[in-house]
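pls design
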């Protein structure tokens, strides 16, 4: 088992993380979509929202979630130099979740890069195009990509207090890590099955969908009111 040889545990408060995720999602949607409107005007496709369009948006949101975890998987292979068998990529269609974990301890510096990889490639990289494309759904999808990285950002910031050469392993029940300061732990990981991330990812995805549709409703109502004046 794992419990004997770690130096310390670090984690973030689940309630705080939930509030941060909600506020970050709302701010991101307002910033990306609002800036796009200021730059290019209200997008034409905004006035043609339909059930088909909402369904397509939801499907694209699910695809982004899958790509998010696949980028974590590739990050472990390319950045942390893991073998595929050292990474656990879990997908459950019944529960509607997908998650990615390292089965072995990872250096803090490498893990921080793996955490931020989806944020950079799916959020920051397409952000300029989202701001100037004058396409509502694309702007909303980029905002959703940024929002889906809120927990990753919190964990990466939490790791600032840990030396890059230290090793860490995902905590099995809390949003955080076991930290091994400057030494290789001798541990048996055969029965190690993290349960934190799948639960958080599901709640996080539901919050993003909720914030997205609330933002859409409020924005559309404001536009109709302003154009009717």
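designed seq:
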């Amino acid at each position: 088992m794992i419990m004997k040889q770690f130096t310390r545990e670090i984690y973030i408060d689940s309630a705080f993380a939930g509030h941060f995720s909600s506020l970050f999602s709302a701010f991101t949607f307002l910033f990306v979509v609002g800036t796009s409107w200021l730059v290019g005007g209200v997008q034409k496709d905004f006035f043609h929202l339909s059930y088909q369009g909402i369904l397509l948006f939801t499907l694209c949101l699910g695809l982004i979630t899958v790509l998010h975890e696949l980028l974590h998987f590739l990050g472990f292979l390319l950045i942390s130099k893991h073998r595929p068998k050292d990474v656990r990529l879990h997908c459950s269609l019944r529960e509607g979740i997908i998650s990615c974990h390292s089965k072995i301890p990872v250096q803090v510096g490498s893990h921080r890069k793996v955490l931020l990889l989806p944020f950079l490639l799916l959020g920051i990289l397409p952000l300029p195009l989202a701001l100037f494309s004058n396409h509502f759904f694309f702007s909303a999808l980029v905002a959703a990509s940024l929002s889906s990285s809120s927990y990753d950002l919190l964990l990466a910031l939490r790791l600032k207090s840990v030396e890059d050469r230290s090793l860490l392993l995902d905590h099995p029940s809390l949003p955080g890590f076991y930290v091994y300061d400057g030494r290789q732990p001798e541990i048996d990981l055969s029965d190690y099955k993290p349960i934190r991330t799948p639960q958080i990812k599901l709640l996080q995805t539901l919050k993003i969908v909720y914030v997205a549709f609330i933002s859409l409703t409020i924005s559309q109502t404001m536009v109709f009111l302003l154009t009717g004046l």
